[in-house]
Amino acid sequence: MSFPWAHEYTPSHPFMKWMDEKLPLPRLVYNSVGSGYPVPRNLNYFWNFGFLALACLGIQIVTGVILAMHYAANAGVAFDSVEHIMRDVNWGWMLRYAHANGASAFFVVIYIHIFRGFFYGSYKAPREMVWLLGVVIFLLMMATAFMGYVLPWGQMSFWGAKVITGLFSAIPLVGEPLQQWLLGGFAPDNASLNRFFSLHYLLPFVIVGVVVLHIWALHIPGSSNPTGVEVKSESDTVPFYPYYIAKDGWAMGLFAFLYCAMLFFFPNALGHPDNYVPANPMSTPAHIVPEWYFWPFYAILRAFTSDFFFIPAKLMGVLAMFSAILVWFFLPWLDRSPVRSGSYRPAFKKFFIILLIDVLILGYCGGAPAAEPYVMISQIAAIYYFAHFLIILPIVSSIERPDPLPFSITEAVLGSDEQAALAPAE
Amino acid sequence: MAEEAITDAPELATGDGVRRRDFINLAAVSAAGVAGVSLLVPLISQMAPSADVLAESSTEVDISAIQPGQAIKSIFRKQPVFIRNLTPKEIAEANAVPISSLRDPQTLAERTKEGKENWLITMGVCTHLGCVPLGAGEGEIKGEFGGYFCPCHGSAYDTAARIRKGPAPKNLEVPTYEFTSDTVVKIG
């Protein structure tokens, strides 16, 4: 679907005409990311992060496929093969650092993309499906990143695999057999490493598939925008090509600059020295932490230190950690406010900023040792996190008095819209 | 033939009753469904521990060199197992604890073999999230209850390796084992 004023694809070259009759792939591209896709004219820089996320996925797939040409998924040689990539393979050091830091860059981009959605109400009707598919992509990303971190088979890889699969052992009755089934043994070993490699290679392509659905679902109502007011007429939009292709290209240049600075000057800043020690099943590193992008959820996991009614603390922590993401699936129905954009919601805006700070605090605590005062801070922050989604959002959306909305995107941009004079006041 | 055709005809026309085709349809789709679901069995069970992994599920350890107060780390199912020779003082400490005060109530006698109460054999796997607790090696801290201490999230175990403090829900697991002689123990 598109707006009636969308440019129509009209091939002029005989070959393109022939192609359009046999397989209208150029037409699909034209209508998806070309001149045939009208986009609100007022998108701000936060709307660049979808494109950047796609770019990150591309970087990860290209570097990953290359690394797989040199990596050996066998517990006996995996660690050495990674060192082989770092020391012997031509440009291997760069490709591995690009992949490892690419994962971090991907999560930076995706967290901004998600919080953009939180603030501007991108999850609201008619874009619920776009949001739901996005949450699925995020879950797939987390699984892929976790399994990728296991592959170098260092100490953090091994103990990360043990602790994360240990989460499943908290499930009553089936927990222990489930953990053994996931690992293919009683502890992480060759069987675990092999299957993690297989899935780590597979899941990015599953993500590509869901990304296609995500974009497809987005293109049915069309992109949202910072005012949250739906597109009304042609003057509200500009074609995706060349306007947003150019803007995304600019953002890509800035992203590449920061990414390369990380990659070439601080390639290990986000890693853990312990992962340059080969996996040792007999000795646990003193301070196990996951990668930074899991810290907020790890803090929620560790926040449960005593039994909750009849549910053991360990199981409660696991349930809370998964619920912290699963609650996002219900977001379109928890926030009932008819106003989409946070810019016109004075109360919501304040709670959004508190949520952002709350998640940053959780992230800090997740990376800190499991000791006081961090445990108590995580407990308070975890309670607030769930309260935001389950209590604050529904209440705020029902009692809040939103600011007046502009008549149209054009009016928001230019200060007036000639159609506003013709239309009855809203 | 002619007779059958006549009796079938009204049912075919109105769609009433059970036709032979309905039965075949139902049976074929059900059979395909059962066959499809049964394909999941090999696809899922291939991920379970393989025969060679299961074959490593027993191990024999010579314990003759372990003096009272000492412990060794051995390997069972590729995981650490702690074999500890308790001193009379440690045994007395473990027996002095009121059972009702424990998170996972068990006596030392229940966690050891009869007549071999000084031999405490447990997995070296914290029941919280699977880290290896400290306390078995020479010079490692044993925590405030004199048994084991997990550095990951601060679980402390007593001299019977029972959970006393911290997030772990259970006592350190006692694997299946038997003394094949006075100096050899077979785990698994």
UniProtKB/TrEMBL annotation, chain A:
Its main location: membrane. Keywords: Electron transport, Heme, Iron, Membrane, Metal-binding, Respiratory chain, Transmembrane, Transmembrane helix, Transport. The chain crosses the membrane at residues 45-73, 93-118, 130-151, 157-175, 196-217, 250-271, 317-335, 347-370, 376-396. Residues 15-227 form the Cytochrome b/b6 N-terminal region profile domain. Residues 230-407 form the Cytochrome b/b6 C-terminal region profile domain. It is a multi-pass membrane protein. Its cofactor is heme b. Binds 2 heme groups non-covalently. The main subunits of complex b-c1 are: cytochrome b, cytochrome c1 and the Rieske protein. PANTHER family: CYTOCHROME B. Belongs to the cytochrome b family. Component of the ubiquinol-cytochrome c reductase complex (complex III or cytochrome b-c1 complex), which is a respiratory chain that generates an electrochemical potential coupled to ATP synthesis. This is Cytochrome b.
TrEMBL record, chain B:
It is found in: Cell membrane. Its EC number is 7.1.1.8. The keyword Transferase does not apply. Its main location: membrane. InterPro entries: Rieske_2Fe-2S (IPR017941), Rieske_2Fe-2S_sf (IPR036922), Rieske_Fe-S_prot (IPR014349), Rieske_Fe-S_prot_C (IPR005805), TAT_signal (IPR006311), Ubiq_cytC_Rdtase_Fe-S_su_TAT (IPR019470), Ubiquinol_cyt_c_Rdtase_Fe-S-su (IPR006317). The keyword Cytoplasm does not apply. Belongs to the Rieske iron-sulfur protein family. This is Ubiquinol-cytochrome c reductase iron-sulfur subunit. The gene is petA.
